[in-house]
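wait is this the right file?? whatever heres the structure
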């Protein structure tokens, strides 16, 4: 399955801020966000408020090396996208609103500067960026896709480009690029607009030596476009932009070096030094173009000219700069409009401090006074505002929590003095977190329970030493690394945990008993990293782990034999990379000086040392056989690798394993408990993050919504246990014994008994003893016993029974408690606390946003606080208890969203005013992307919990028995109650069957889902609420997880209704240009696909879950569902044409542009299906729609036509490598065709569309079990389910169209079958043959729901039914048993003796179907519609009655001994009777009023609903 999971990151920052040594700084065009990049690869977004205050908002992860430069993505003032470049050539395009990575790529080389430009292309303007650095070329990139458009090349004296600027001559259209090389040569390029990637190399137009060595910056005066400022390290100079004549020059003082500069006015410049000081100069008159003295000093001696006047120094005060800087500060100047006209100088230093100076406005008059005065020192201007991450941490109370703060107190008297976590590892199979600390101790703790302590309020969480944990003591000094080898490969014993520390030791622990098994003391430096050898090494090495230390040594340590197998020392430089050659028994160690040491693993002999290109070739050759192990990754590389592999290790197969387990269970197979334990923890992953080697560990909790839903639906391992000590304390002894009796298994009693003792011990521990609470669990086998017992290795892994609660339910409780919108509805909050068992967060939760390519944005602590100037006096919060309602009352209040809102506003006016609105934000008010992720997650999980009976996190002391027998498992307070005859209770459960408590819990989850889906915008108000992103919802329209899919569809439709007709029109206007053009048949999809691009774009594009293996990440990973599993969007992106009325957009191979075209089809499809005009009102959906969007109307139907063609194309395009058969974009097309069929019908080939959908339903019986399970489906089953639903919608919306089209196709098929020369194989592969059960299902559905419409076309319906029924079954069982639905009609009769079916038509004719000959004959009978027909018991006669004619006729069917001689041979009318006239109000009542049946072989009776019976004899 594609890794497109809905992941919500939550951050625990810890008590210490991360290191942020700033290497680049900038401010966005709107001057609302300052962006800083650091040497560790992270980027921080700082809010810059109206009153010039700075506060850190987000930290962005994803780069693997130092940030070298930052730039705006375009010159426009409204967009706030930025581009970052790293030292290793990585480029990222970020959205500064939410920190989302929009696009990322890698351009070889180290880039030192990025310049955004707007260029004229034809009639429009395009945004480009200019990239240059430590290479002799200049790259021009598209600012949206980051693709290289073309490259500017040096022909004369090529050298690195050190500085560059852009000139726009006033009277010319071209853009001129001026650049300086490091050797001081000036280069000039003119951009004509005709350049492209395929054109000839673009060489410079002019080249001139300037003697400006190592220029730091080159800036053209934006005020006059006539002068240029060049800053070199020793001097800065002003040149005339026309001919580059030198106008003036200023040398720096001794010990200083200039770092950059810019114009702040036509006659003034700011220049800054590498020490971080800014100097403001007024230029002399010969440097000012408007002055008469301009250029007057050219050719004169330098001393004769008036020098620039230094009038102000910008300097950071000493108290702000207490700590010495480890590197030069990064500085930049920016001017722009934000209300006032602001000119800002920014500085970021190695301590993570951002400093801003607002340029002083000094008039000419004031400057005149300054020139006359004599000063010993120049006027110094302090910073306008300054802030750092350390300031942020110091201002917070309480401090940001760490993962195990409550267990790390050094002394109870000083709660802020904590032991720092120096290394950590999460064990998903156990649900445990292992943390090494700086005092050498290792803590093993239940991960979800310790997270609940940090985030949520609970009585039990305040207990000292909670949750139950184990402490391993042995290291002297801090623990530097941890390894659980069994997690990486199952060949290792599950009890082994290995730790390394600054005491030069590796220690081997038994994780179950908590005992130290062995200490390896082989290194001469602190242990920095531990690795696992590949599985194809020899058996001796397979039992080892590889350890790397700071003394540059590498050791192979055998865990089984407890000895060092090999110690590789003698490395002169730090170890950078380790690679393996198992076939040759070689271990290859690469050092930072690029030398490679080749060691023999068996003997420990140093085979050789290689250098240079040979070393490179040897290392590259290893990659062909074995995956490289980066031994000494930088922290940034480790983070990026962890984020990219996050969903590929234990998470990748979570949903698939659960599906298999559920299928095995359905088939009666026993699933192993080991599998259950593995799947039980996949919805939560905990990743330690450390930005710098000096930092302590922070932790990100990744909640995978889809995996959580799958676990809730499939987890049968709900081990009976107890959730919380306070709830145990509240139980009486009799209640406890009752609980024990209910959970009958002995294991349950043992576990529950142990946990009670453990919790009582914890609660009774009120002394001030050390929190070293080791579990009193009986010791497992000692190390000797383990050695003696060879069978130990074959046992299944055990759970660490520190606190046996159900992991899935713990995760659900933590997840929903963090995401719920607390404080908006006090009555619902009370229900959540008392009925559902959610816990309130005690401080703001730091969420994150996962974007493509493993890039991630995390909120900084304190994000929820408004800037201080925005705070106003807030009214106290309303007490929840005063307005608490019962669940039933609340449900009645919210029967419909609108009524509820009116009632809420009338009952409790000004909800938002009564909360502390002015001082705090909620996480719904941060960004649209975050809102979308959170709403999808909370609604889908709430709906899943609602579908379960009694899904509460509160222990219920007594639950009365229900009428049905139910299996009930108590765990963690949630009693999962399922009907004995079905695995999953549906929402349609009869509430009468539930206890009042169960009904209240269901209603509570329903209210919670309704609050988030419908009421949130109104309760928060439009001022602060950030609505969900429509495009993100559209991409999830066919998410593989059904709950997420339904949540996305409900949210998208609710949002489209909320924004109204004008808002929808804006949506159409913005997305219509991306809609591909399928109207012209010549513009074939595949004709524009370039093979090379196609091969690139389809890497990893297998749609089957089995096929997507390995550790490679595709572009679609961690992305929305619309492009997962394949690049459906790339197919669309390869099409040149666009819609007729919109401008043609440039074809781009970038992920974002491909995805936009896919999203456009879905977005326009949804708007058209829900709000488009119907040609005639659909039968099943009431009256004609009132609202019609432009482009989808009866007169203006351009968008409807294009969208219909696009949807049809995606349905009917044959499967190919680029567009496999079962993909999300195809499913979305199928679904939208079904939803909006009445809109699309005039523009599509209905026959081809219906046959295409039936083709997908051919295996519906095979997929039936999986579809009913409610779990994520395989792609084929999902397509089948979607097509199945779409066909039902189409048939009920246009029954006549469906019936006539299908009848026509059946007739065509039978005509081909009659042709003996037509290949039988082609006929048998037709959907009309393979999808017969599906066709019959739809006919049955129509008969149930739309009897009148079917009666109008009964002969055509019977044509379809006769084609689909099995003749053998019909002969054996009769029509009434094989297809009983059709026999409801009085105008259908079946004769078992003659195997004939008679059908009365609306035209008055009779259709006679003979099963022996498989033929049909039409006989003219009545003048008006036939109302009833009936065969006599012996089949010789047929009685027919017509209400319109008021006649009853008898027909002799001519059934002879040779009945197959000719169809209906001798079927003739033998007698007619006139019948009594009566009134029927309509056709529907008529069908019920008349019954025609035979009393015997000669007498027929006509029975009316009044009770009158008329008898007629042949």
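ok assuming it is, sequence goes like this
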């Amino acid at each position: 399955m594609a890794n497109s999971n809905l992941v919500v990151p939550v951050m625990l920052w810890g008590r210490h801020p991360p290191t942020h040594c700033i290497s680049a700084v900038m401010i966005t065009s709107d001057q609302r966000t300052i962006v800083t990049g650091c040497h560790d690869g992270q980027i921080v977004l700082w809010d810059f408020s109206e009153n010039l205050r700075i506060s850190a908002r987000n930290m962005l992860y994803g780069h693997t090396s130092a940030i070298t430069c930052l730039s705006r993505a375009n010159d426009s003032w409204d967009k706030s996208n930025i581009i970052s470049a790293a030292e290793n050539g990585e480029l990222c395009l970020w959205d500064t609103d939410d920190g989302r990575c929009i696009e990322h790529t890698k351009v070889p080389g180290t880039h030192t500067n990025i310049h955004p430009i707007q260029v004229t292309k034809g009639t429009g303007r395009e945004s480009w960026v200019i990239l240059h650095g430590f290479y002799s070329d200049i790259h021009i990139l598209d600012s949206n896709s980051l693709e290289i458009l073309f490259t500017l090349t040096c022909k004369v004296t090529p050298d690195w480009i050190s500085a560059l600027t852009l000139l726009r001559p006033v009277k010319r259209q071209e853009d001129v690029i001026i650049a300086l090389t490091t050797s001081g040569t000036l280069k000039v390029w003119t951009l004509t607009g005709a350049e492209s990637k395929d054109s000839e190399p673009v060489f410079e137009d002019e080249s001139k030596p300037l003697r400006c060595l190592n220029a730091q910056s080159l800036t053209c005066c934006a005020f006059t476009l006539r002068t240029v400022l060049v800053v070199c390290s020793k001097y800065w100079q002003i040149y005339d932009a026309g001919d580059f004549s030198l106008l003036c020059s200023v040398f720096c003082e001794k010990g200083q070096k200039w770092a950059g500069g810019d114009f702040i006015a036509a006659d003034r410049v700011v220049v800054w030094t590498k020490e971080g000081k800014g100097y403001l100069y007024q230029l002399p008159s010969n440097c000012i173009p408007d002055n008469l003295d301009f250029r007057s000093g050219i050719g004169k001696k330098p001393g004769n000219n008036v020098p620039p006047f230094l009038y102000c120094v910008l300097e950071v005060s000493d108290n702000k700069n207490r700590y010495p800087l480890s590197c030069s500060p990064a500085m930049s100047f920016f001017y722009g409009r934000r209300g006032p006209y602001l000119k800002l100088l920014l500085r970021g230093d190695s301590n993570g401090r951002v400093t801003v100076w607002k340029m002083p406005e000094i008039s000419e008059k004031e400057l005149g006074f300054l020139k006359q005065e004599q000063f010993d020192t120049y006027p110094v201007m302090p910073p306008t505002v300054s802030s750092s991450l350390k300031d942020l941490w110091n201002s917070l109370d309480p401090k940001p929590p760490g993962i195990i703060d409550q267990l790390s107190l050094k002394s109870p008297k000083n709660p802020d003095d904590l032991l720092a976590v120096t290394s950590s590892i999460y064990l998903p199979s156990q649900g445990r977190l292992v943390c090494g600390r700086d005092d050498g101790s290792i803590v093993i703790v239940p991960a979800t329970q310790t997270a609940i302590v940090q985030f949520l309020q609970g009585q039990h969480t305040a207990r000292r030493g909670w949750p139950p944990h184990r402490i391993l003591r042995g290291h002297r000094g801090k623990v530097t690394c941890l390894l659980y080898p069994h997690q990486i490969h199952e060949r290792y014993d599950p009890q082994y945990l290995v730790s390394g520390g600054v005491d030069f030791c590796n220690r081997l622990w038994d994780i179950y008993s908590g005992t130290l098994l062995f200490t390896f003391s082989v290194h001469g430096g602190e242990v920095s990293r531990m690795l696992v050898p590949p599985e194809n090494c020899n058996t001796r090495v397979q039992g080892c782990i590889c350890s790397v230390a700071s003394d540059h040594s590498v050791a192979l340590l055998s865990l089984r034999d407890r000895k060092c197998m090999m110690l590789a020392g003698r490395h002169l430089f730090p170890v950078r990379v380790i690679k393996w050659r198992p076939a040759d028994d070689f271990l290859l160690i690469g050092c930072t000086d690029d030398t490679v040491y080749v060691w023999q693993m068996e003997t420990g002999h140093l085979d050789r040392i290689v250098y240079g290109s040979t070393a490179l070739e040897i290392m590259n050759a290893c990659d062909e056989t074995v995956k490289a192990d980066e031994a000494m990754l930088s922290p940034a590389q480790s983070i990026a690798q962890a984020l990219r592999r996050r969903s590929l290790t234990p998470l990748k197969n979570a949903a698939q394993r659960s599906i298999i387990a559920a299928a095995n269970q359905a088939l009666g197979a026993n699933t192993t408990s080991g599998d259950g334990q593995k799947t039980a923890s996949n919805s939560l992953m905990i990743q330690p993050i450390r930005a710098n080697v000096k930092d302590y560990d922070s932790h990100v909790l990744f909640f995978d919504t889809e995996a959580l839903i799958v676990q809730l639906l499939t987890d049968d391992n709900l081990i009976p246990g107890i959730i919380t000590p306070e709830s145990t304390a509240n139980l009486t002894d009799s209640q406890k014994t009752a609980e024990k009796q209910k959970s009958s298994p002995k294991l349950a009693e043992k576990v529950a008994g142990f946990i009670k003792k453990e919790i009582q011990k914890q609660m009774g521990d009120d002394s001030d003893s050390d929190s070293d609470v080791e579990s009193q669990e009986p010791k497992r086998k000692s190390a000797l016993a383990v050695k003696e017992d060879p069978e130990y290795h074959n046992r299944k892994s055990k759970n660490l029974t520190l606190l046996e609660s159900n992991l899935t339910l713990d995760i659900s409780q933590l997840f929903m408690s963090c995401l719920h919108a607390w404080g908006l509805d006090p009555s619902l909050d009370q229900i959540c606390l008392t009925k559902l068992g959610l816990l309130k967060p005690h401080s703001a939760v730091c969420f994150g946003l996962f974007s493509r390519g493993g890039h991630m944005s995390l909120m900084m602590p304190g994000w929820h606080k408004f800037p201080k100037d925005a705070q106003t006096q807030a009214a106290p919060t309303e007490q929840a208890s005063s307005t608490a309602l019962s669940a039933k009352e609340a449900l009645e209040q919210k029967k419909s969203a609108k009524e509820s809102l009116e009632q809420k506003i009338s009952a409790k006016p000004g909800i938002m005013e009564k909360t502390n609105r002015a001082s705090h934000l909620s996480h719904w008010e941060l960004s649209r992307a975050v809102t979308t992720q959170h709403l999808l997650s909370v609604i889908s999980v709430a709906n899943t919990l609602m579908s379960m009976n009694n899904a509460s996190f509160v222990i219920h002391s007594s639950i009365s028995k229900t009428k049905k027998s139910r299996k009930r498992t108590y765990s963690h307070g949630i009693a999962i109650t399922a009907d004995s005859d079905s695995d999953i209770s549906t929402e349609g459960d009869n509430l009468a069957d539930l206890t009042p408590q169960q009904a209240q819990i269901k209603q509570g989850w329903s209210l919670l889902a309704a609050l988030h889906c419908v009421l949130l915008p109104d309760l928060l108000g439009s001022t602060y609420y950030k609505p969900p992103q429509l495009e993100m919802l559209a991409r999830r329209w066919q998410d593989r997880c059904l709950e997420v899919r339904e949540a996305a569809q409900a949210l998208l439709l609710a949002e489209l209704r909320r924004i109204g007709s004008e808002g929808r029109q804006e949506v159409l206007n913005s997305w219509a240009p991306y809609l591909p053009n399928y109207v012209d048949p010549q513009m074939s999809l595949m004709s524009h696909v370039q093979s090379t691009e196609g091969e690139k774009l389809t890497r990893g594009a297998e749609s089957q879950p089995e096929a997507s293996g390995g550790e490679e990440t595709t572009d679609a990973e961690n992305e929305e569902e619309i492009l997962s599993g394949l690049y459906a969007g790339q197919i669309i992106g390869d099409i040149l044409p666009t819609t007729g009325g919109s401008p043609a957009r440039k074809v781009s191979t970038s992920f974002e542009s491909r995805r936009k075209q896919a999203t456009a089809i879905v977005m326009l499809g949804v708007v058209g299906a829900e709000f488009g005009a119907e040609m005639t009102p659909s039968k099943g959906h009431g009256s004609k729609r009132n609202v019609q969007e432009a482009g989808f109307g009866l007169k203006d139907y351009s968008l409807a036509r294009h969208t219909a063609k696009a949807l049809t194309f995606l349905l009917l395009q044959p499967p190919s490598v680029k567009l496999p058969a079962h993909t999300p974009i195809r499913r979305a097309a199928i679904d939208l065709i079904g939803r909006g069929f009445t809109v699309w019908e005039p523009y599509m080939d209905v026959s081809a569309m219906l046959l295409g959908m039936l083709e997908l339903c051919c295996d519906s019986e095979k997929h039936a079990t999986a579809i009913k399970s409610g779990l994520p489906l395989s792609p084929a089953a999902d397509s089948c389910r979607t097509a199945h639903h779409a066909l039902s919608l189409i048939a009920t919306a246009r029954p006549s169209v469906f019936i006539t089209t299908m009848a026509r196709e059946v007739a065509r098929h039978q005509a081909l079958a009659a042709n003996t020369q037509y290949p039988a194989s082609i006929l048998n592969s037709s959907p009309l043959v393979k999808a017969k059960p599906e066709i019959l299902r739809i006919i049955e559905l129509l008969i149930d729901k739309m009897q009148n419409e079917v009666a109008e076309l009964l002969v055509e319906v019977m044509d379809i039914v006769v084609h689909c029924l099995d003749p053998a079954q019909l002969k054996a069982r009769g029509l009434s048993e094989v297809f009983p639905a059709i026999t409801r009609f009085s105008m259908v009769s079946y004769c078992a003796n003659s195997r004939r079916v008679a059908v009365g038509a609306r035209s008055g004719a009779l259709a006679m179907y003979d099963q022996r000959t498989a033929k049909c004959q039409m006989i003219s009978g009545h003048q008006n519609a036939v109302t009833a027909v009936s065969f006599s018991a012996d089949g010789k006669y047929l009685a027919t009655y017509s209400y319109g004619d008021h006649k009853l006729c008898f027909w002799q069917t001519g059934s002879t001994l040779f009945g197959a001689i000719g169809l209906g041979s001798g079927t003739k009318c033998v007698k007619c009777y006139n019948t009594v006239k009566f009134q029927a109000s309509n056709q529907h009542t008529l069908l019920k009023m008349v019954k025609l049946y035979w009393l015997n072989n000669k007498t027929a009776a006509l029975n009316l609903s009044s009770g009158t019976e008329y008898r007629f004899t042949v």
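The longest helix spans residues 1042-1071. so i think its the right one actually
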